[in-house]
Design goal:
Elements lengths: L18 H10 L3 H17 L3 H28 L30 H4 L3 E5 L6 H14 L4 E5 H13 L3 H9 L3 E7 L8 H15 L3 E5 L6 H5 L2 H13 L1 E5 L12 H4 L3 H8 L33 H16 L1
Parallel strand pairs: 1-4, 1-5, 2-3, 3-4
Helix pairs in contact: 2-3, 3-5, 6-7, 7-8, 8-10
């Protein structure tokens, strides 16, 4: 059976469009940036004898780059970061144990796709929020959405919604973003249902494998007191840390580092040396009675230590002297 010769495809006629006729075509295809630059690029292509392929490649590359930059700006604005910081701006030399390499898995797309979480713990000024913002911004750069909110604001919003019977409708604002940064756990006091509304957010995100970043100045052992419910606080931490990490931050405060406060404030031993007063070898708390009198001391317990013979001798002598009275 002989094959029929294939008929050649008809070559479409090249439309002759004026600049005014091109404008609505760019708009219809949402090529806003291409619409602005195509004439300049076309003039350059004619002068430099570009191929049609090179001309098209440059137009497409410029459009993609512009859309990427526009998206980055829009998502950064919608994240509501308290300030803008990047990971490159964080001074890891001030940390005794934390290094950037330890956070490497939180700076790539796997942080979001695998639903990892993070708790950043430390005193004020140690850079917890800086790191949280930097990781959240890196997630935006990797193509995801981030929302940053203080714990006080989140709890207040959801508590008010719960009181109106609208809790489940309001949860989507905090469960929808790919990354949720909850800043300042424990800085302010919360209402009695704090643990309840926070658990709803954490549990929903945990089930969807959506990452969370917490910053806190409180040890995990006191989150129950902070949130007014020990059991729910334990359940929250259990879900966060199942695929997450607890990262302590130390070092000096970044806000007051220039004042050298830690060097200015002497240690207890240094204060005693400067004052010329020797510290007590066996310090005991002094209890003042309600009438202002100092109650008589009870006989000292004989506690023997193998590491301090001199102290043992003093304790024994004191005990013997007391027994002779």
């Amino acid at each position: 059976m002989t094959k029929k010769p294939s008929t050649p495809m008809p070559v479409p006629a090249i439309p002759k469009l004026s600049e005014g006729q091109l404008e609505p075509l760019f708009r219809r295809l949402n090529l806003a940036h291409t619409r602005r630059i195509y004439q300049e690029v076309a003039d350059r292509a004619e002068k430099e004898n570009w191929t049609y392929r090179d001309f098209l490649a440059l137009l497409l590359a410029e459009e993609v780059a512009h859309r990427k930059q526009t998206r980055l700006q829009r998502c950064t604005r919608q994240a509501h970061f308290p300030f803008f910081k990047t990971i490159d701006e964080f001074d890891f030399t001030l940390q005794s144990t934390l290094r950037q390499s330890l956070l490497g898995s939180y700076l790539g797309p796997d942080f979001v796709t695998e639903g990892r979480s993070l708790i950043l713990y430390g005193k004020a000024g140690r850079g917890k929020t800086h790191l949280a913002v930097a990781i959240g911004y890196r997630a935006i750069q990797n193509g995801f959405e981030t929302l940053c909110i203080t714990a006080a604001k989140l709890i207040e919003d959801l508590s008010n919604a719960s009181a109106k019977g609208l809790l489940h409708q309001s949860l989507s604002a905090y469960t929808r973003p790919h990354v949720l940064v909850i800043d300042e756990i424990g800085y302010l006091s919360y209402g009695p249902d704090a643990a309840n509304v926070l658990f709803h957010v954490v549990n929903d995100r945990h089930l969807r494998k959506r990452p969370m970043i917490f910053t806190t100045n409180k040890p995990l052992s006191v989150w129950g007191k902070v949130l007014h419910d020990e059991d729910l606080a334990a359940a929250i931490l259990d879900r966060v840390l199942e695929r997450g990490r607890f990262v302590p931050l130390d070092g000096p405060s970044g806000r007051t580092r220039h004042l050298n406060l830690e060097e200015v404030s002497p240690s207890k031993a240094e204060r005693l040396r400067i004052s010329g007063i020797n510290g007590s070898e066996f310090p005991e708390p002094t209890v003042i009675g309600q009438d202002g009198s100092v109650p008589a001391k009870k006989p000292q317990e004989l506690v023997i230590s193998a590491q301090s013979p001199k102290r043992n001798l003093a304790i024994l002598e004191s005990g013997l002297a007391g027994g002779q009275r």
